[in-house]
Design a protein that fits this description.
The complex is a heterodimer.
Chain A (H helix, E strand, L loop, with lengths): L5 E2 L6 E2 L19 E2 L2 E7 L4 E3 L6 H18 L4 H18 L5 H17 L3 H5 L1 H10 L1 H9 L12 E8 L1 H5 L6 H9 L3 H9 L5 H4 L22 H14 L17 E5 L3 H12 L3 E5 L8 H4 L8 H12 L4 E3 L6 H10 L2 E4 L5 E2 L17 H14 L11 E5 L3 H12 L4 E5 L4 H7 L2 H10 L2 E3 L2 E9 L2 E13 L8 E4 L5 E4 L2 E4 L3 E2 L33 E3 L2 H4 L4 H21 L6 H12 L25 H4 L12 H10 L5 E8 L2
Parallel strand pairs in A: 7-8, 7-10, 8-9, 10-21, 12-13, 12-19, 13-14
Antiparallel strand pairs in A: 1-2, 1-5, 3-4, 4-5, 4-22, 6-22, 11-20, 15-16, 16-17, 16-18
Chain B lengths: L1 E5 L2 E5 L5 H7 L23 E4 L6 E2 L10 E3 L3 H16 L15 H8 L17 E3 L3 E3 L9 H10 L4 E4 L6 E4 L12 H5 L5 E3 L12 E6 L8 E11 L2 E10 L9 H5 L12 H13 L2 E4 L5 H13 L3 E3 L1 H17 L8 H5 L3 E5 L3 H4 L1 H14 L2 E5 L13 E3 L6 H13 L7 H8 L3 H8 L3 H10 L6 E5 L1 H4 L4 H14 L2 E5 L6 H7 L10 E4 L5 E4 L7 E2 L5 E7 L4 E7 L8 H7 L25 H6 L5 E2 L24 E5 L21 E4 L1 H7 L6 E6 L2 E9 L7 E4 L16 E7 L6
Parallel strand pairs in B: 1-5, 14-15, 14-21, 16-17, 16-19, 17-18, 19-20, 21-22, 22-23, 27-31, 28-30
Antiparallel strand pairs in B: 1-2, 3-4, 3-5, 6-7, 7-10, 8-9, 11-12, 12-13, 24-25, 25-26, 27-32, 28-31, 29-30, 29-32
Classes of the chains: A alpha/beta, B alpha/beta.
The complex binds flavin-adenine dinucleotide, iron/sulfur cluster (SF4) (5 copies) and FE2/S2 (inorganic) cluster.
């Protein structure tokens, strides 16, 4: 909470210009951004409002600079009449007024152009740019008029003291941990230019096949279309471009051309999403990358954890080959140890640790002894299944006639139970401490549905209290039952054990899939890398450098087990920071990265916003899936993806909610 | 069906239709500039906004699907105001100097400016000097007139399939960028030009030559290939020393519904000179016909003319020889026997509706532009798989093909046999004899000799697995193959047992009509009357120096039978003042007033119907389709596959570019040029020839010269030989399209 001098953001009009000293200023209920990196903000202007923090801000210049940003942007787009020409007129007229050459008629012209842009622009960017400009013209009318009447330049017109930093975002993009340019790749689909679509995706997301299939799509919970009817099927639309590249005899569709080598080398530990992403963006910038991978296969958990029926190996390999096409070298069967790392530090210019979290956590019940036959960690179980199904390495898992109890509630446990069904188990039980809603939140509705359809038995509000064995062979598990007691203070409901509610399940296997830990034993002890309280590698969460200069960390080993897109987002950011570090030796975020963080804190999506200019009542499509009876007998991909026609209709629903945000900060 | 209300009028629409489409169908006007029916919604002009009750703001009608119960308003003072504002913005940087613009009178911007009552340019206009660009040979682009409606980029991607155009952003300076020159991949079809609503894209041939309102449109059927595209000849009288003369000034079409290729659009003005109604000439012609043992002709005649010739054959024994249609007619009848159907069943529209498309022996991009468009539609709308089976890969298909199988030249029979094994072997109700035949195939030998691997065949099979609608398109590589009839039998089996629809691309304009109407012979014997073909007495409209000039297809009424098996009308665009084939038959005593009196009398046994010529033009769509009848025939027993011959040395492939399908183009102003020999850099190296060099080609058929071009879009060691300019001299008519030649450079003129 803060008290700006003036703000119109989110319909809250705050005007402290006549409120005397700061103590008595009205506060905003919003988390308005106060600083960009370490520089204090003087003003924050964007798609919905404008906030000014001190009197010295020049509103005319602010409006003109904002229009200038749009002018630049529309130069780069130019795809609708109101935006293409309106943007230019807006800027020309505001600049004319700001330099003291404006006329009264220009104000009317501005109004006219603004309303044309608001009513009929193609993208939200063209529709929203006039919003704060009109607000400034209204609330700071006297200053605008002064410039015109007196033929004066606006207060800061010639001054260099203020920097205007702008950033283009969208509600969905802001919520995507990797800031994928969602409207752009959807536009590619809409235009039937699937090559353009996949290129747009790959600007931020090299693993287009993967994230078009198994991303839990946090972006969709921040899709503005939900305010009108249902969120866009953002995730599935990504798959079309990727499949186009793979299926239609295309060469690799890189978003940009690879830069010439800069003579620097980076070593990367782990060929999972984080390692691959680091390599891709560094290689495209001309940095040579070696990825060292302990396993005999590339891809990390997405290869050995995520099963074939959700993420076909061949499709993931397309992504991996795409990364390799940037020049990245993957060295398989190469576990990195402390000595190697010491050597890497000498031989390479920087190191990325992206080793994931590949140790299953314990359930923490009585008699939980790994030596009991029938106790099988989720990671080892899935390793065996996937290495066999995808590569014919090791041996098949056969559960014919067996009962499997899995403890979990996230992706991993879902994969365990569905794989168990496919391995022929007689009965598959998923035990979860919390309720159905939480499991859906943790994974996805589709995935939960599919598991239920396939015959997985879900038992909620339950946890294993004890494993019961006979001579180290598992016999059954003893379970406690819980109930959710709402927190009177409005916090998360508490789980309270129901006395006398215990029961047992006879079973052959218990598979803990609660969460994973990072195995960081390979790090040289003397490096004394700082850790978090969850035993992951500690960074500042902005540049992703660890406590040791030149050593970065990203993905699960930094954040803890999360999602692919989270790992990719971190790794891409880290690769950018590393690249600049390799060039200059400085470890610093760019202004645009700072803007990303600033906006994320503020949150771009406003679920209360009323939408205009679009007709609602159009539902999102559902893609066709493989028939249950058939699919439980094999590993074929379950989801066929959207048909082209479904996809185009879906792309037409996307409102292209690009926004420009801009802050004014003091020049450094 | 969805019910909605537009301007208080209750309307029903199909689900998925847009508000704009529903309104148009109901006859309600909504202004648009960028909308183009045949492509996906563009959404650039924003003029089509409407009001929908209970929805805040204005809704874009061209992109919003109808919803049950909505109440739409397309006209209101507020809408007028918004549209007026948009038009004001358009005119900001569009010089309103319509007086000098070719598009004046048919410019959509001009019309809309008038509609929204804008006279002045209210916002400051920016002067900008912007150079005019030349896109290939026929098209000029003026960026200062371009309103960035994106119609051109859409058609190039969605209809033509070249995707040679894109927006080059730059605010005021935004323009359309043409990437046609890169690897010579712009088809120069002029589609972009045809759909341009303003004068930004014009033909260099048409430029400043006439004003739109001075012209008269004569609807007809394109004369250049078997696709039978509908077009309008725009004709105008022009004063000359000899009085007033009518000529074709331009070809146009209904841009919302249909498209034309370069040949159709630019290949006009092929009418012959020197027609006369000289009695002595007629006597000579009658004499020639009386003593003729053979009539040799091209398929570029009407169904009615073909019918006359067949009539002659019926009443007295003459050989009808049509080299270009002969192989095809034999292929077709063998196929019918094997498939158990009177004709191939598919049409271009079926291709567009397919989920899996297999192209075999058909260089589709050049051979069948309309099929290429249909393939694009199937890929775009249905995600269809496309397998291209051909000895030469075509980069222009790279946006659509899911698989390219390059088999060896000459191996077509082996490939067809492997396809039968792959697609038919597991069919239910397969006759024992066929099973045995399949069982006896030497797959190893066939695979190795044809260069088609087991994996490729597996992939082919996989691509049709989830494809309910499968179409096999076959082309002219097969019809004149030494083993054409054996291949036709196998294609018939793919139809009968393999779950494929089959489309054949006829090798020339009306080759299908001729194949159906005439009983053709293979060899010319005795005294020969040649119609655009060599003979003792020659006549025609295309071949230079004929004894008697006949009307071109743009100068007569009659019908053609198209690839889609439709009977389509020709009209008189340019009057003809000489004798016609009909006149000769009348002189011999035939009771015939107009040739088109024969239209309803075309052979019913081949599916032609008793429909009058006049009824064809008014039908919608134009013409009628020949039905495909089931035949009670026993399953054809395929022959044992012959050993695959080898093609060694320098091999050329006779292929004419889409823009120059036939010799007819040699009579046009825009397209006339010499054919070239084109090949990859690899070929140039091996054959020791350089780009631009004159070479002499020697083959069994003789020797002639060409200019050699290195074509960056080609790979491999087979050269493409354009021979449209020699068609009339009988080269490459009715022979297998691949040929071994010798290339000489010594002593060849510069
Ligand atoms: C079963 C399962 C299902 C999942 N499903 C989804 C899903 O549907 N959607 C989603 O978004 N996320 C899902 N996740 C999470 C996702 O897989 C991870 O967030 C992601 O893989 C993290 O990427 P990473 O690169 O950080 O680590 P990882 O993918 O774990 O990769 C780390 C790599 O480093 C290697 N490595 C470790 N130590 C060394 C060493 N010393 N030397 C060399 N190599 C080493 C490992 O072998 C591994 O290959 C799932 C996770 C699991 C376990
Ligand atoms: S409608 Fe499109 S641009 Fe807007 S938030 Fe949703 S996905 Fe993003
Ligand atoms: S990567 Fe995931 S979160 Fe990001 S846009 Fe795609 S689906 Fe959404
Ligand atoms: S002429 Fe045809 S191929 Fe060339 S740019 Fe225009 S539409 Fe595309
Ligand atoms: S050239 Fe013509 S069709 Fe193409 S964008 Fe410009 S105005 Fe539209
Ligand atoms: S040549 Fe063929 S494809 Fe081209 S316009 Fe004429 S009929 Fe159509
Ligand atoms: S017709 Fe709808 S935007 Fe142009």
């Amino acid at each position: 909470m803060s008290a700006p001098l003036f703000s119109t953001w989110r319909g809250e009009l705050i005007d402290n210009r006549d409120s005397g000293d700061r103590e008595s200023w009205q506060e905003s209920s919003l988390k308005l951004p106060l600083s960009l990196g370490d520089r204090p903000c003087r003003a924050f202007i964007g798609w919905d409002g404008v906030a000014i923090y001190d009197e010295s801000v020049d509103p005319v210049r602010l409006a003109m600079e904002y229009a200038a940003q749009y002018q630049c942007y529309s130069e780069a787009c130019g795809r609708c009449a109101p935006g293409r020409w309106g943007g230019r007129i807006l800027y020309d007229l505001l600049d004319k007024i700001a330099r003291g050459e404006g006329e009264r008629a220009d104000l009317a012209h501005l109004q006219e152009t603004c309303s044309a842009m608001r009513a009929t622009s193609k993208c939200e960017i063209g529709r929203t740019v006039p919003v704060p400009i009109l607000q400034l013209m209204e609330h700071y009318a006297t200053i605008f008029e002064q410039c015109i009447e007196a033929g004066q330049k606006s207060p800061e017109y010639d001054q260099e003291g203020t920097r205007y930093a702008a950033h283009v975002t969208a509600p969905c993009m802001d919520a995507c941990p990797d800031r994928v340019d969602i409207p752009a790749y959807i536009e590619g689909v809409r235009d039937r230019l699937l090559d353009e679509s996949v290129k747009a995706t790959r600007k931020a997301m090299p693993l287009a096949h993967t994230c078009g299939r198994v991303c839990p799509h946090p972006c969709e919970s921040a899709c503005r279309r939900a305010n009108l009817d249902t969120p866009i099927s953002i995730m599935e639309l990504k798959r079309l471009g990727a499949d186009f590249e793979a299926d239609r005899q295309q060469h690799w569709l890189h978003p940009v051309e690879k830069r010439p080598e800069i003579g620097k080398r980076v070593a990367i530990v782990g060929a999972g999403p984080a390692g691959l992403t680091t390599a891709y963006y560094l290689c495209m910038n001309g940095v040579a990358c070696d990825i060292y991978e302990a396993l005999p296969v590339p891809g990390g958990e997405v290869m050995v954890g995520v099963p074939e029926y959700r993420m076909p190996k061949e499709k993931y390999l397309e992504d991996i080959r795409f990364v390799e096409a940037s020049g990245a070298k993957i060295h398989l069967n190469t576990p990195v140890d402390a000595d190697m790392l010491r050597r890497f530090e000498q031989e390479y210019d920087a190191i990325m640790l992206a080793s994931g979290t590949r140790i299953s956590k314990k359930i923490r019940c009585e008699n939980e002894r790994p030596e009991i036959e029938g106790y099988w960690s989720a990671i080892e179980f899935l390793d065996q299944i996937n290495l066999w199904e995808k590569y014919r390495i090791g041996s098949a898992v056969d559960l014919t006639g067996k009962t499997v109890v899995c403890v979990g509630g996230g992706f991993t446990s879902m994969d365990v139970v569905r794989c168990s069904i496919r391995a022929g188990a007689k009965r598959v039980v998923m035990l979860y401490r919390r309720d159905e809603r939480t499991i859906i939140n943790n994974t996805s509705l589709e995935e939960y549905h599919e598991a239920v359809e396939e015959g997985v038995e879900f038992i909620f509000h339950s946890a294993i209290a004890q494993m019961v064995d006979e001579n180290d062979v598992l016999k059954e598990v003893l379970c406690n039952r819980f109930e959710m007691v709402p927190d009177p203070d409005g916090g998360r409901p508490k789980l309270v054990k129901i006395e006398g509610g215990d029961y047992t399940i006879e079973c052959d296997y218990v598979i803990p899939a609660v969460s994973q830990d990072a195995d960081l034993s390979y790090l040289p002890e003397e490096w004394e890398l700082e850790k978090t309280s969850w035993n992951t590698l500690k960074t500042d969460g902005k540049t992703y450098m660890t406590s040791r200069p030149g050593i970065w960390a990203s993905g699960a080993c930094e954040y803890g087990p999360m999602t692919i897109v989270n790992a990719v987002g971190q790794a891409r950011r880290a690769a950018d920071v590393m690249y600049r570090y390799l060039l200059t030796g400085e470890v610093k975020n760019s202004e645009s990265e700072e803007m990303e963080d600033l906006l994320r804190r503020f949150r771009v999506y406003d679920k209360k916003e009323a939408i205009t200019g679009w007709m609602g009542g159009l539902e999102r499509p559902e893609s066709e899936r493989l028939d249950v009876a058939y699919r439980i007998q094999n590993n074929e991909e379950v989801n066929f993806g959207l048909t082209p026609m479904q996809a185009y209709a879906e792309a037409e629903r996307c409102m292209r909610c690009y926004y420009i945000a801009m802050v004014a900060v003091a020049h450094d | 069906m969805i019910k909605l209300t537009i301007n208080q009028k209750p309307i029903t629409a199909r689900s998925g239709q847009t508000i704009l489409e529903a309104a148009r169908e109901a006859g309600v006007y909504i202004p648009t500039l960028c909308y183009l029916k045949k492509v996906s919604a563009i959404g650039a002009c924003r003029l089509c906004v409407v009001e929908v009750e209970n929805e805040a703001g204005l809704v874009l009608s061209c992109q919003t699907p109808v919803r049950e119960g909505i109440v739409v308003r397309t006209q209101s003072p507020a809408l007028f105001k918004e549209r007026q504002r948009i038009m004001a913005l358009y005119n900001v940087n569009h010089p309103l100097e319509c007086g000098v613009c070719d598009k004046s009178g048919e410019c959509e911007l001009q019309n809309k400016t008038a509609e929204f009552q804008l006279s002045d340019q209210p916002f400051a206009a920016k002067e900008m000097h912007r150079p005019i660009e030349q896109w290939g040979g026929f098209i000029q682009y003026d960026p200062s007139l371009c309103i960035l409606c994106e119609r051109c980029t859409r058609v190039c991607n969605e209809i033509v399939g070249d995707n040679r155009l894109s927006i080059e952003p730059g605010g005021y300076k935004s323009k359309i960028a043409w990437r046609g020159g890169d690897d010579n991949r712009c088809a120069e079809c002029g589609e972009c030009m045809a759909v341009c609503p303003v004068g930004a894209l014009v033909s260099t041939h048409f430029k400043n030559r006439a004003n739109a309102w001075e012209m008269k449109k004569i609807p007809s059927t394109c004369a250049h290939c078997s696709a039978g595209c509908q077009l309008d000849y725009e004709v105008r009288y022009s004063g000359s020393a000899h009085g007033s003369e009518r000529s074709v000034y331009r070809v146009s079409n209904d841009i919302h519904e249909s498209s034309l290729c370069a040949a159709g659009r630019f290949g006009y003005g092929f009418e012959p000179d020197g027609a006369s109604r000289d009695e002595a000439l007629m006597r000579r012609a009658l004499e020639a016909f009386a003593q003729a043992k053979t009539i040799r002709f091209t398929p570029r005649i009407s169904n009615e003319e073909a019918h006359l010739l067949q009539g002659l054959k019926a009443c007295r024994d003459v050989n009808l020889v049509c080299d270009e249609a002969y192989g095809f007619s034999r292929f077709l009848s063998r196929y019918s026997q094997s498939a158990g159907e009177s004709l191939y069943d598919a049409t271009t529209e079926d291709v567009a509706q397919s989920d899996a498309i297999v192209l075999f022996g058909c260089a589709v991009v050049d051979e069948a532009p309309t099929v290429r468009t249909a393939i694009h539609q199937a890929v775009i709308n249905r995600g269809a798989s496309v397998a291209y089976l051909h000895p030469i890969e075509d980069v222009r298909l790279s946006r659509v093909s899911t698989q390219v199988c390059r088999y060896e030249v000459g191996a077509e029979e082996g490939v067809a046999a492997l396809l039968v094994r792959q697609f038919v072997a597991n069919a239910a109700s397969l006759p024992e004899s066929l099973k045995e035949w399949i069982g006896a195939l030497d797959e190893g030998y066939l695979g190795a000799e044809s260069n088609l691997s087991e994996e490729e065949l597996e992939q082919l099979l996989a691509s049709i697995r989830r494809a309910p609608k499968r179409t096999l398109v076959v082309g002219a590589d097969l019809y004149n193959h030494p083993r054409a009839e054996a291949i036709a039998t196998l294609i018939g089996l793919l139809r009968r047992y393999g779950g494929f629809s089959v489309l054949m691309v006829p090798p020339a304009t009306n080759a299908l009509g001729v194949a159906l109407i005439c009983d053709l012979s293979s060899e010319a014997q005795g005294y020969t009357v040649g119609i655009d073909s060599p003979g003792d007495f020659t006549m025609g409209s295309l071949m230079p120096g004929v004894d008697m000039v006949l009307p071109a297809l743009s100068q007569q009424e009659g019908t053609l039978t198209s690839m889609d098996k439709r009977v389509l009308p020709l009209n008189v665009a340019i009057p003809f003042s000489g004798w016609t084939l009909g006149d000769i038959f009348v002189r011999t005593g035939m009771d015939l007033e107009w040739l088109i009196d024969l239209t309803p009398k075309l052979p019913g046994g081949r599916g032609y119907q008793a429909i009058s010529f006049d009824a064809l033009r008014s039908a919608s769509p134009v013409g009628y389709a020949l039905p495909v009848a089931k035949l009670e025939v026993p399953t054809a027993q395929p022959e044992p596959v012959e050993a695959i011959g080898e093609f060694n040395g320098t091999v050329v492939f006779h292929l004419n570019p889409a823009s120059h399908p036939t010799g007819t183009v040699m009579r046009t102003k825009a397209l006339r040029r010499e054919g070239e020999l084109r090949a990859s850099a690899q070929f140039a190296l091996a054959a020791r020839v350089a780009d631009g060099q004159r070479v002499r080609l020697k083959s069994a058929a003789g020797s002639f010269e060409r200019t050699f071009r290195v074509d960056a879009s080609l790979k491999g060691t087979i050269a493409l030989l354009e021979s449209f300019d020699q068609l009339l001299e009988n080269r490459s008519r009715g022979v297998y399209r691949y040929e071994t030649v010798q290339i000489e450079t010594e002593g060849v003129g510069a």
